[in-house]
Amino acid sequence: MQTPDQSTPASRLSQLRGAMRAQHIDALIVPSADPHLSEYLPARWQGREWLSGFTGSVGTLVVTQDFAGVWTDGRYWEQAETELAGSGIVLKKIPSGASVLYIDWLGETMRPGQTVAVDGAVLGLANARLLQQALGAQVTLRTDTDVLQAVWPDRPAMPAAPVYEHAAAYPTLSRMEKLAALRAGMATHGASHHVISTLDDIAYLFNLRGADVNYNPVFLAHALVGPERATLFVADGKLPAALRATLESEGVDVAAYDRAAAALAALPSGAALLLDPRRITFGTRQAVADGVRVVESINPTTLAKSRKTDAEAAHVRAAMEQDGAALCEFFSWLDCTLADPQRAPLTEIGVDEHLTAARARRAGFVSPSFGTIAGFNAHGAIMHYHAHAGSEATIEGDGLLLIDSGGQYWGGTTDITRVVPVGTITAEHKRDFTLVLRSMIALSRAQFPRGVKSPMLDSIARAPLWAEGIDFGHGTGHGVGFFLNVHEGPQSISQSAMPEPQTAMEPGMITSIEPGIYRPGQWGIRIENLVLNVPADTTQFGEFLRFETLTLCPIDTRCVERSLLRDDEAAWLNDYHATVRARLAPHLAAPADAPALAWLEQRTRAI
């Protein structure tokens, strides 16, 4: 038998449509999701990317017999237009704050008697409910089939990386303490049991880490916490025998990964199960026994892990010093390389390789925290650009180089964006850079009531840009984990996020501040620091918080137009640079670090 051609998105869609006809499916939804609703997916669940060729981390593919479209937000529009070209797949742009437009499209397009299918094992429960409502009773929704399995012959297997302990020096609460706190949270909801599927919640709760997802030190598992014991559902062979024995001695039983649904089905009648409808799939909810009372609320661990303890914050500060020293080494090398007329060509991929190598030489480094974004000139305007061999730009001539990168360290997770000049830059470059800097400073200096909903802070950063008729198409800030996911909730400084109770800003939260300006086909500018919520004043109006800037790396003043900065803004920048110099210089004391130290001193001079 001749093997079907699957070399292009068009040929793969043709095979998919054949499988849909065989199963009497009129429309198929392929979300960017796995059974844990992860942002970054193990290869096995990257079906949307495999079918469409669109590599962005966010997007939903919908396929009918005469239509195929990918819905994605503004961060990926330029990238999607390039990657979907010639595929027969339409880019459907999601405006800010309208994340489920594909559901609206299906509700308007599908006709009575037709069938929409989606793998319920990867469909979020909250989205499933919206989909059921949009389709109504006359359109059938099938969630019991994984059509990809029929058309993806070389589909990757489940990841098999081992699970390991987060080194004992770093977690500030033991597993037993975290489980006790979780059970106290369950009790406030009247819940006897709690199911958790989100991988960062599980890694946090059990003080375990893994490598099943690129860049995120997590492992595939589900967890069921009962009144006295918890069960961790993880694939056989991933837990060393000694670790498994330790877990069981501390009240954590270990069961096979694929037994989680059966455990939910076997819950005793009258049990009360706490679950988070935004953090479990429709398939997981369907497995719950009928006699169980379900209580819906945010996972208590999601709130707990977002509020770093003082000891965890100290570990993060130390990790930031290591990261900052690595960045000094890298940027010193970059400046020398760009100034050498006899140098070999430097590409965006080369930038990534040298930066990762600099981090790898630092104490406590484990891995990058996401794929490095190194975009020169027009590529910098693609918000989540990733260089690929054959299409990467060479860093030469004049312009701006944007570098967004981060590291996973035993003591914390980093995420930083800097922009550097290449050759001669223009007054327009400097104007845009300075406006973005003013936006970053505005929010970094903010003081706000404890408990304010994080999305409400977004406009503080945008105001300097709005005053010039400029805006950017992504959130201003996301939460960051503690040697966990670089994107962590529940806080989000974004105009597209809802100001819900769980988004309240509390002490100990780490969040990015990263405004930008993107001029398609020309350049992109983003300046990003991570900040920590710390107590500020207590007044007659209540407790207030402020931001402590955690990130330690100079902001390139060669790109600053000083006349556009107010004196107080320039003072903030000079104070920040004095702190960076004082904190990083001791880590660059070795003779081999002399060029990096000289670079640090030069780049932190007051303006």
Fill in the keyword field for this structure.
607 residues, alpha+beta, six-stranded mixed β-sheet, 33% helix, 20% strand
Structural class: alpha+beta
Helix content percent band: 25-40%
N/C terminus separation: 72 Å
Number of strands: 28
The gyration radius over C-alpha positions equals: 25 Å
- Strands across the major sheet, in which order? 4-3-2-1-5-6
Query: How much of the polypeptide forms β-strand, as a percent range?
Result: 15-25%
Overall description:
It is globular and about 70 Å long. It has 18 helices and 28 strands. The protein has a six-stranded mixed beta sheet, with helices on both faces. Strands 12-11-10-8-13-14 form a six-stranded mixed beta sheet. β11 (230-233), α9 (241-249) and β12 form a beta-alpha-beta unit. The chain is of the alpha+beta class and 607 residues long. α13 (310-339) packs across α18 and α15 (427-444) runs antiparallel to α16 (458-466).
